[in-house]
Input
Amino acid sequence: MSSTAYPALATTRRLPNVWDLAAILCVFGALVAIASAAYGTIAPISAPDAVSVSLDPRNLPEYALRTTLRMFAAMVASLLFTFTFAPLAAKSRRAGLIMIPALDILQSVPILGFLSFTVVFFMSLFPGNVLGLELAAIFAIFTSQAWNMAFSLYQSLKTVPPDLVEAARGFQLTGWQRFWRLEVPFGMPGLVWNMMMSMSGGWFFVVASEAISVGDNTWKLPGIGSYVALALDQRDLSAVFYAITAMLVLILLYDQLLFRPLVAWSAKFRFETTAGATAGDPWMLKLLRRTRWLRLAGQWTGDIVGKIGGMRLGLGRRRPVASGKPSRLVDVIYGLVLTALAAYALWRIADFAAGRITSDEVLEAVGLGCITMLRVVVLMIVASLIWVPIGVWLGLRPVWARRVQPLAQFLAAFPANLLFPPFVVFIVRFQLNPNIWLTPLMVLGTQWYILFNVVAGAAAFPSDLKEAASNLRVGGWLWWRRVIMPGIFSYFITGAITASGGSWNAAIVAEVASWGDTKLTARGLGAYIAQATDAGDMAKVVLGVVVMSAFVVLFNRLLWRPLYAYASRRLTFS
Output
């Protein structure tokens, strides 16, 4: 019986080299640190320092590790969600009718809204234990990471070139094989960039996710988010500086150790027929290639994953149907069921609000929603005009994209809360209108969705099309209109959908800014929900969230979805 001869074992020298020893020491050190941090998650809430935070900078390494573990746990959950939700929504027309609007609603629901309904559930699973609070925080971070990743893979699945689909059919690949050998590799470049954006989005909302409140009790989980919140409460600028430094170090570390190798790895899945411009391999990949045991372990892992993806699940050809058109009767029944469910949900909401909400308050919430929508529209236009050209320039130049990548991640991760003090002081000092000058805070964390997706789209743009445009001397506005914009349009729409939904969400913290005793409020639906939350008026909170979700869904249905369908129908590579 013959066995596979791996390159790492092809020579007689099978002992680990010095690079293996260094890597093994680093891995064991990381495992020890993770185990030490994880031990704190199973302690009782009543234990000393279990749910308390100190501004002593010596505690920042432990806090940074705890926060990073929460974010990566949420990232794993987001990947599982993405690889189940997106294929079902993309491949089942009827499921997509529910799942895509549901995704629109979920990304518009404020993170505080998720915490309000999930904390009690997770705490009931582990009563009196910190693990319940940790799971609630991880779920809150998950809600800031998952939606744009699911949108990214959904967009890729809907825009796979038809000739590749025909080739997969010609090779008689099953649905399972086609998904893992064609569709996932095709969507991997965009998904990797959205994973980076999700990590940054998690940092943006980590301040809210690490402060858990139930009734009159509030627990602050040890972490950088809680550290920042306490520093802002105590107006300790030195502690704020320490927190920013710790964030920068962490972002640089996981960018160098994880995301740079992932971006380099995903570049091999670009859809093109000629060799395009590529950046050199990052130092982390070069070091891994110098090892023997780790390289062998990587080869074994790749073989196992390849065998799983190559399993012929769903063997047997589908029987041909009499007509290629879907059953109208099934569509009618399905539509009636959806209508009944929507009517029941609206009835439950109306029953909850009856006697608590008047028609005038509903009209007020809708009017405030119109004001916030105007802000979102203006911000999306301005952000697109700024970041689309920059994203295209970076995406077409992989070397520069690698250089700018950590800076973009840091800026995207920068919590807007830390910019409230200078904004408040600036507005008060010059007696400016808060309704105008608080508006930029809404887009500080969400504009990066546009940049990251445009960079991913430009990086995946086929080199042969770029060469054809260059040979035909297509340039200037014609190049933008006929070449690059059609090529990246689906990526831009994905970024714009998540950016607009995130801007609605960010309105809750952006339309109310405070520093010390000075508090500024801008008229809008975000301020309405924030004030209702502070007052404990759940009826108004529900009303505000429902109105916000309705605005997001209508906005997506009337604008983004038609553009998305146009991109899927007319602007795919074939």
In short: The chain is about 75% helix and 5% strand. Residues 359-395 form the longest helix (37 residues).
